[in-house]
Amino acid sequence: MNDKPPPNRKTMDSSRMQQSAMVVGTHEQTVDQESGVSASEFRHLFESAPGSSLTLHLMELLPAAVYICEAPSGVITYHNRRAAELWGRAPAIGDTDERFCGSFRLFRTDGTPLPHAETPMAQVLNGAAPIRNQEVVIERRDGSRIILRVNIDPLYDINGRFSGAISVFEDVTDLKQAEQASRRLATIVESSGDAIVSKDLNGVIASWNQAAERLFGYTAEETIGKPITLLIPPERRDEEQGILERIRRGERIEHYETVRRRKDGSLLDISLTVSPIRDTKGNIVGASKIARDITRRKRVEVALRESEQRLRLATQTGKLGVWDWDVVTNRISWSDSLYAIHGVRPDQFDGTVEGFTALIHPEDQGTSPERREVTPAGSGTGAATDHVGAPGFPRGGDRFHGPRVQQSSRNHHGFRGRHVERHGTGRSQLSRFANH
């Protein structure tokens, strides 16, 4: 038990505010066993102290919860309005059944029950050191729970003897939930395969995940606090100002394809998604940026364009006709050379299978590969069919036997199939099937 205050603590008879904060109670019969001063005498001392009414008024207006227990019994001798609000009840002052804390039930932060006799208040009343920022969970009668952050100091009477303790506590439930959400978000960001970077409205980097380190080659220590232009090639610096202007207007930028520079100086193609970051009041304070490496995709696109260009040159040189049938949309597209081969103008063909069939001479429609059944894409049959024929096409009112046709179609479950047929003026040409 604390018989004397710490050497540097002022006793209550030397401090008006400490005197005003003396234990107050309406339980007239309660007697402090150490000082021999009853609760009624404490109350008289408190109410007669200069400025006591102002102190009580201020304690009622505090946004923090405050209550006082006498030593050693733990009986509650004062609590303010905020304490009753957080407890969900207003315990009777001086009630010997209300000891150490006014809450219905208490729990430790790990979820285990916390008896009233083992609360932080009880610990201080039993001689423990002052409590600082200790967290406990309380349960109200309606079953709701909140997290409290508690600070407790011992109180001393005018003779310097330990007489009780005062607790100041606050509801930190929202803060703890926000911290948990922040930790979960941080875990998601760190485990993401995409580079995720945040920056302020001046373009200064504020956060940098591991994927960003792998993508750009810089560590978080090398980038946080540095301008984002560190990653931007000189010829693209104007892009950043435009991005920041859009962010300030609250816009979200999606799939913005650009080029950025790694630590080693090499360039890479990336796709950016940039979103505004807002504070609790809704003000835009920065931006989050997700960067995805699309270098490989860009290379494939270039290779595809080059391949298509070579195909166009080959068909023009060899006077080949190519038509492309998308079995999902049931649309057919013809190359320019195929219109010439069939003697048909573009406005005479509507791009449908039926339109194609209508161009075939009636005597040949039954043998046309276009009329043969093709298993729909995605059916899962995996069947492959090859047909060779020479259907007749009308030209100038006469029956024109077109070039030999080699047709190949393959269907794969879950893939979009595209049927391609090539027409040549002589030998059959190798057909192909493309999946998309």
Structure report:
It contains twelve helices and 19 strands. The two termini are 81 Å apart. The protein is α+β, with helices and mostly antiparallel strands. It folds into three domains: 165 residues, PAS domain (Beta-Lactamase); 102 residues, PAS domain (Beta-Lactamase, 2-Layer Sandwich); 122 residues, Beta-Lactamase. It is elongated.
Entry summary:
With 436 residues, this protein is α+β, with helices and mostly antiparallel strands. The chain is 27% helix and 29% strand.
Going across the major beta sheet, what is the strand order?
A: 2-1-6-5-4-3
Helix content: 25-40%
Question: Would you count the extended β strands for me?
Answer: 19
Give me the CATH architecture of the largest domain, please.
2-Layer Sandwich
Kindly estimate the percentage of residues that lie in beta strands according to DSSP: 25-35%
Q: Sheet with the most strands?
A: 6 strands, antiparallel
- Secondary structural class: alpha+beta
Number of domains: 3
Instruction: Report the principal-axis shape.
Output: elongated
Low-confidence runs = 1-43, 368-391, 395-436
Mean pLDDT: 76
The CATH first-level class of the largest domain comes to Alpha Beta
Distance between the termini: 81 Å
Annotated CATH homologous superfamily of the largest domain: PAS domain
What is the tally of helical segments?
12
Report the radius of gyration as a whole number of Å.
Answer: 41 Å
Keyword list:
29% strand; 6-stranded antiparallel sheet; 27% helix; single chain; Beta-Lactamase; disordered C terminus; 436 residues; alpha+beta
